[in-house]
Amino acid sequence: MGLRSDQASDSTRLRLVSRGSVGGWPHVVIVGAGFGGLTAAKGLAKAAVEVTLIDRENHHLFQPLLYQIATAGLSPAEIAWPIRGLVRRQRNTRVLLGEVTGVDRERHVVTMGDREVPYDFLVLATGATHAYFGNDGWAEHAPGLKSIDDATEIRRRLLIAFERAEMENDPEERERLLTIVIVGGGPTGVEMAGAIAELARRALAADFRTIDPRHTRVLLIEAGPRLLPTFPEDLSRYAERALRSLGVEVWLGRAITGCDAAGVTLREERLPAGTVIWAAGVAASPAAAWLGVEADCAGRVKVGARL
What we know:
Layout: E1 2-4, E2 27-31, H1 35-43, E3 50-55, E4 59-61, H2 66-70, E5 80-82, H3 83-86, E6 93-97, E7 102-104, E8 109-112, E9 115-118, E10 121-124, E11 128-130, H4 148-167, H5 171-177, E12 179-183, H6 187-203, E13 217-222, H7 233-245, E14 249-252, E15 258-260, E16 263-266, E17 269-272, E18 275-278, E19 282-284, H8 287-291
Parallel strand pairs: 2-3, 2-10, 3-6, 12-13, 12-18, 13-14
Antiparallel strand pairs: 1-10, 4-5, 7-8, 8-9, 11-19, 15-16, 16-17
C-alpha cells in the first residue's frame, strides 16, 4: 500500500530522524521489511529519493521455510538475513529498528513510540498476523507460525511432548502427549503436518526407549471440503494422498469450536492433544486503523485498480 503526501511544504518533511535530506530528494518511508517492503526498497536503489526502511525485527525472514525451523530441519540463521546487510550497498537507504504505532496523514509523519519520521511517500508493507476468528484466547494453546519465535516455540512444545511421554506411566496421558493437531489445511498446515510426521517417524524413531515416536498421531483438520482450497483441485488431492502416505490423518469439513491446554473440541467431539498448532488463517496488520480508512472484516484496506 503506498501513500503520497499532498505537497512537501518545507524541508522538515524530508528529514530523517537524525539525518538531513540529500539534495532535496523526496523521502520514501517503507514500513515492513518482508518480501513486499524489501522489494520496494530494492526497486528504489537507483532512484533520486531517500529511503527509510522500518521494521520491528533486524532481519528479513523467508517465511515459507519456517515450518523447517519448527521441526528442527533448519536453524534460524539459514532463513533469516540482517536487513542492513541486504541494503548495505544502497547509499540512499537507511534502516530503522522499531515498531510503528501510527500514521498522521495530515502531518505526513509515521510514529514510532516517541519518535516521528516525516515522509513524502509512504509504503505500508506490514504483512499479516494470525487470525483466531474472535477466539484470541486460543493463541496461548495453539501458536501460529509467522516468526522465528513462533517456530522455536512450536519446536519446543513438540520436543517437550515427546520427553514427557517418555516418562509418563498413564497410557491415556501418553497417547494424548503423542497426539499432534494442526488446524488449517492451507500451505502452512500441509507443510507442518508432513514435516511433523517425518520428524516422528524418521528423525526421532530411534531416540527413545519407552515410547515409539513412529506411533505419534498427527491430525490435520480443515473446515473446508479440501486441502489447499486456493489451489487447483488436483493439487489438493495429491497433497492429501501424500500426507496420508506419511500416516497423517486428514479430517475435512470439520471446524474447531474450542481449544485449551489439553486439546481441541469439534462441536460435540473432544480430541485430547499434547500439541496444537494454528494454521487456519490470517488477519491484516493494523495499517487500516492507522490510516483511518475503510477495511473489510479481516482488516484489509479496500483498494482499486490503482490503489
